[in-house]
Records
---
Amino acid sequence: MSVEILARLQFAFTIAFHYIYPPLSIGLGVLLVIIEGLWLRTRNPLYHQMARFWTKVFALTFAIGVATGLVMEFEFGTNWATYSRYVGDVFGSALAAEGIFAFFLESGFLAILLFGWDKVGPKMHFFATCMVAFGAHFSAIWIVVANSWMQTPAGYHIVGEGLRARAEITDFWAMVFNPSSVDRLTHTVIGAWQAGAWLMVSVGAYYLLRRRHRAFALQSVKIGLTVAAVAAGLSLVTGHTSAQGVAVNQPAKLAAMEGHWVTGPQAPLHLFGWVDVASETTYGPALPGLLSWLAHGDTARPVIGLRDIPPDERPPVQFTFQTFHVMVAVGFALIALAAWGLGAWARGRLEIPGCCSGVSRFPCWVRRSPTRRAGGPPRSAGSPGSSTSCCAPRMRFRRSSRPARSPSPWRCSPSCTYCSSRCSSFC
Amino acid sequence: MSFGNLDLNTVWFGLVGILFTGYVILDGFDLGVGALHLFVARSDEDRRLFLNAIGPVWDGNEVWLVTGGGALFAAFPMVYATVFSGFYLAFMGLLCALIFRAVAIEFRSKHPSPRWRRFWDWSFALGSVGSSLLIGIAMGNIAWGIPLDAEGEYAGGFLQLLHPYALLMGVTTVALFAMHGAIYLVLKTEGAIQARIRQWINPLIIAFILCYVIVTLATLLYIPHITEAFRREPWFFSIVIPVVLLIANIPREVNRGREFLAFLSSCGAMAGLMALFGVGMYPNLVFSQPLPEHSLTAFNAASSTKTLGVMLTIALIGVPVVLAYSASIYYIFRGKVKLDRMSY
């Protein structure tokens, strides 16, 4: 393998790993603000317990985010030295601003968030939480601006020639608000909210299935689900505006994303498919005119196809097409999941494991002995003997947080043999 | 914002220097705590005390490195590109050490198994010593000079970086950080463990002074461009005097039980050492040897005046804010460290 490929592989691997953590900390930051705000408002100890638990998770994602982020910063120099010389003048100021404004804010106030529970008052602690969340968002701004500048450069000119050539900044604000900055930023940040919210839902759901920390888990699922649902909807909106921006600024990219070859009106949108690059066609079910309509708001407007783009300027079509379609599919699947979760919540069925309600079958095998509960969040004082049976503990939990509205709706379903034997011993 | 005739290149030479000085002083003590982790703290509780002494601040301290690197990238992209690609293996080693260290701090106390904790204890200690050593080696090489070609690319290999002067600088850095960390720990602990750390301070100071004297002699004998700078501007020696006095002040304050003053003296001495390094190097950022005309300086390796101006505006707004809340965070977490349920 050539050195260039190795350097690319290394960069791809490290950036993919890095990119798991900062979005989680951005999303969890927002959720921590919500939870702690709820605690300040209601003084319900459950929220306090949740805030403490999720702060620890936040700190973990943040610390790994910093460590892997350091790798990214180093790799600009170690792997892409010539590129760094070329763009340092433009790119560097965004990165320096990120360091000064965002990283210090985050890491400084994180100390209060983590270790300051007994050292500062609740309001000051809440302020620190807001600052950490704010810092996390701020750090996204600068790196996304730098990334957007690479896609749609603006506010610069090129000085020198050959290896000595480099981009110099002419207009700082034009660089910051380059054509794709705002779209990319909103889509990224809202995606990060989803990431954090789904993490919270997943952890809460896991505890619900394992019958541990029920009050805590249920409330985590509810708060996480609310944020996830809002963010999933907004992702659709920002994804759409981003794609419209791509249609204007990077037509070749749009054409590759959609496997669109022939320029013309009524451009079709492929739901899924396979691109045959050799014969320059894309196979798969397509909705005529939809791509024109989505890109330009009018089915009669033409969309530029790949055949009008010189072959050496075309992006890798198959890979772009497939990954883009997977991304869109995941986005819609998450919207569906959020809707399903909200529906279960509305019917009061969030905490009923599948084996007892018949809502879902898969949780049966996840369940293990309910007596094992090492680790996890500290148990709240209000739920003493939490969670051994399907039926009893729910009433207890209800009493601990708010009065029960109706008798327990647990029922035993005979459809699952493993659970029905266990359920019948409880019910 | 316009800065008139201000020499922005020199200003940024100084500002980058200040950022790295901040990093060395702040991360210096938590790297030093790591260096002492295995030897001084024996029991699990002692080790948790050590980790929690740096718990609230180590993350923020590391940000100084990130910001210093970012500022170097923005102000002197040539230097950033040359140093980071030239010292490729050294920086990968540094990254590995820093990552193991960060993960060790977070992971160690999350699981009670002794084997788990022992593994992360070793990671934390080796990561800390390794980072200190590599930072020192990098500084040694920058002072000594590295072979650069006309394009400003590094024209040597990895083993070439490990010459005796650089290694000596590395060992000196480890000793300095260990001394600094011990003083910080005395400040943050109490009782038996404090008494034990106190016994380590004098040997560490002596070790550091020995290394420092040898480094100074080697510098004066073998690094003519730094010697030349001191000959040209004899007032540079006025920085040496407070550094020596501050180092001498450390055992005095420790013996009198005024740990905070001892810690401040140590911080001041480190700032003085970095200032000496800076004025000795100016205007070179990376000295080229054997061809000094290829050296990267604050003038031939800098970004455009426009960018330096934009960044100075950013720094003028950002740095005072950063200093203000960093100080208040250190103030909130003043006093002896105690283990509670949110501790590592």
Note: Chain A has three domains: 3-242, 250-351, 353-426.
---
Amino acid sequence: MRLRRLPWPLVVLVAAFFVPALGSRFYTFVANDVAIWALFATSLNLMVGYTGLVSFGHAAYFGIGAYTTGLLMKKAGVSFLLAFPAAGLLAGAFALVFGFFCVRLTRIYFAMLTLAFAQIVWAICFKWNEVTGGEQGMPEIPYPSFDWMEGLAAVVPLVGGYRTSEYFYFLTLVLVAACLWLLHRIVDSPFGRMLTAIRENAERAEFIGINVRRYELAAFVLAGGFAGLAGGLFGIFNRGVFPDFVYWTKSSEVLIMTLLGGMGSFHGPSLGALVLILLNQQIVSYTEYWPLVLGTILVVLLFGFPGGLAGAAGALWTRAAGRFRRA
Amino acid sequence: MLEVRDLWKAFGGFQAVSGVTLTVPAGSISAIIGPNGAGKTTLFNLITGHLTPDRGRVLLKGREVNGIAPHDLCRLGMGRSFQRTNIFPRLSVFQNVQAAFLSHRGRGWNLVTRVDRLYRDETVAILAAVGLLDRADDVSGFLSHGGQKQLELGIALALEPEILLLDEPTAGMSAAETREAIALIERLARERRLTLLFTEHDMGVVFSIAHHITVLHQGRVIADGSPDDVRRDPGVRRVYLGEIR
């Protein structure tokens, strides 16, 4: 049994590239949605799972990223090549300012302040008509240009002949994979270990020489920055940017994904994004009571699988592997 | 090494520490003793920056350290262990000590290197010194109480302190565990030329290893000197009601 040794993230990435080949625009749409939310949820998990900081306002940075890319590409005609990193940088800059105040508080007060800042951002997006389009939002964000892909197709076989939305899906896959790889390096680095030490015991962490607040702020900024990148992609994917990207329900949705998938594992939040989005698609076609279903899932999860799906799968795997070895 | 001058601290109306002065010379082993509620832990927290004194000064190597945050004190060479065991419970034993090395050697802001292999040899050496090498990969929260105390000592040692403050290092240990722990602490202090300041309620422990003893009672120093001086002091005898023979 060497299944565990397979580079699973790579397998999933390669498989994801073949989704458009299934021929359904809907599948590609869902896969694109999942990829973006996977990055968003994983960025949140840097705080929740690794540093022990529960944020109720992570959508603020997602939204700031979405508005940044949207404004730059639609109103200023800036290329995606610049607008995308700008989303991460601006969201990170806001996270630096908001985080500076938030890390001064602990636990529930920290969580409430993240929510307060997110609602301020939402109010600005909702009311600042001249810039953000206010309540109506900002429709018709252009896709990045994929002419170069068509050009490439003349030389390399198999890369041409896709729809723009499919090209954008490929681009999303590459960028999300790169971001997740970066995040994985970060949590596996000495810096990541310092964050875990803070999560485990902040008082002791102080007394091994860790400046707890500064590390928490750094985690806040990184999480905000990556959420901004996810938001940048989402605005284009959604063909428009709207104030509800920043609304608190988005913050809770991404938090639920993280918990559902399992904040104890790196890939847990991505799994949570996949499961929640698929469930949503399925259930909405049967009933309009999605929030009811979501609430029920959450209750079962919190009592039955505190480690989330990834935690439950890991335990199941260990048990199965043990039985296999004994047999 | 460490000097405390006329330190005061009150909580509301309760005067926890009243005008404590004490000196810990470099290379010595000093103990602070006193009955429950004498102000030992408060004094410790004042010295280690967890509490701010109302009045008075704390000098580390001649430098005033009042109001300095714990993480900075740590860099100035002060290590401490806690009365309530204080480790990173869901990290492995190895990771606990390694985290201390990473932080102390200023590698904490490295975001790219893989953490697994850093300071392996140093961490292994510390684990061997505190007798936890065979438990290196265990989750530290599952260690016995004595084991967690050993690990805490290991974390403190990884910070390469010049002075080590131990708050009740044998609290909650059996007699046998206490003997072992004290032998370990004494050996480590000798080998690493550490200055040691500890609080303790077990008189046997105190009189067996301390060079210098300060007795606190109701927040005041009532005796201060060599173990023999303290043993003979009539005030101390009265407070302990003949506990010391």
Note: Residues 2-240 of chain B form a domain with the Rossmann fold fold (CATH 3.40.50.300).
